[in-house]
Write a structure and sequence with these properties.
alpha+beta; four-stranded antiparallel β-sheet; 7 helices; 19% helix; 29% strand
Length: 297
């Protein structure tokens, strides 16, 4: 499997299934590998990091025709970076539109929402999403609580409002994985999260129209309530990826963070680190087990 991205997909019953998208052959769309609780993993990572392809005007992934090694620190080759239609939108602040005409028209005709998300360490993030997939966006980033705070027609207007609101004290536009890992075992009550959100919104009377904000608790989607010990890092970021193994039974996922278990020892991995690499499932295991503190009690 050539890993393309981490994915959360809504199901018909209002829940989500989580896993990774990957190229496995000559297919037109990447396949989905579900990482459900209890799944046994024995993955061996192989380098080098290869180009994952580009996204067309509809946002769909297209495989790299050259199938070459990506640039250091990147997941796309030069050719795919140039034709990727979504790349200008990722960096958009609403001031200047560098997207293609077709992409710009689609953006202007789409309904967006401005949202706030609260994380367990009490960090408050402001972001933008299309209205139809906002809850998916929340769980993709591992938010603990979230709410829609404005509805906007057109992406540029939404991005301008996001930029204005995120400049307020107490908000950020990005929460890094390192911070999410550090707060994984922390607790944050709904009432405290609601207090944080209301305090921030009270500073925006001249920016946003006043309306009732309904904060949602997202903890039910991650299946991590059973954690009774802090997970150990899967690997050091400075370690080479080639030949590293990811082992154990899946406990749950939170955004791109995957928690696995061997015996009583928990391990946490940021699956974003796998993007661009090839995964060989079910190769012989080099490390059979690890010991956790609970094994000695």
């Amino acid at each position: 499997m050539h890993i393309v991205s981490v994915a959360w997909r809504p199901t018909e019953n209002g829940a989500f299934e989580q896993g990774v998208l990957s190229w496995t052959g000559a297919e037109e769309t990447p396949g989905f590998t579900r990482l459900f609780p209890g799944k046994k993993m024995s993955w061996t990572i192989a380098g080098p990091r290869m180009c994952i392809g580009s996204r067309n005007e509809a946002g769909r992934l297209v495989s790299c025709s050259e199938n070459i090694v990506s640039r250091p620190g990147q997941v796309r080759c030069n050719s795919c970076s140039v034709v990727d239609s979504m790349d200008p939108c990722v960096r958009c602040t609403g001031r200047i539109c560098n997207a293609s005409e077709a992409r710009r028209t689609r953006c202007e005709e789409t309904d967006y929402v401005l949202y706030l998300a609260v994380f367990r360490d009490q960090t408050l993030k402001v972001g933008v999403s299309t209205a139809r997939r906002v809850k998916t966006r929340w769980v993709e980033q591992g938010a603990d609580f979230a709410a829609v705070i404005a509805e906007i027609r057109g992406g540029r207007a939404a991005r301008r409002l996001e930029d204005l609101v995120s400049r307020r004290s107490g908000a950020t536009k990005q929460v890094r994985s390192k911070r999410k890992i550090a707060s994984l075992m922390e607790q944050l009550s709904f009432s405290r999260a609601e207090e944080i959100a209301k305090r921030f919104l009270s500073s925006l009377p001249k920016v946003l129209p006043e309306h009732e904000v309904q904060l949602e608790d997202l903890s039910m989607y991650y299946n991590l309530d059973s954690l009774n010990a802090r997970p150990l890092p899967w690997r050091k970021r400075s370690d080479p990826m080639d030949g590293v193994q990811l082992l154990g039974d899946v406990v749950g996922m939170k955004g791109s963070l995957l928690v696995t278990r061997i015996g009583s020892a928990f391990t946490i991995a940021d699956l974003k680190q796998l993007v661009g690499y090839t995964v060989h499932p079910d190769l012989p295991v080099k490390i059979v087990t690890q010991s956790g503190l609970l094994d000695y009690i």
